[in-house]
Amino acid sequence: MLTKEAAQHIVYEIMKLYPNAVPTMHYQNPFQLLMVVILSAQATDESVAKVKDRLFERYPNPQAVSESSPEEIESYIKTVGLYRNKAKYIYKSSHQLLEEFDGEVPNTRKELQSLSGIGPKSANILLNVAFNQDAFAVDTHVARVCKHHKIVAENATPKQIEERITEIIPAKYWGRAHQAMISFGREICSPINPKCHEYPQLYENLEEINLMD
Question: What is the per-residue pLDDT for 100?
Answer without folding.
Answer: 98
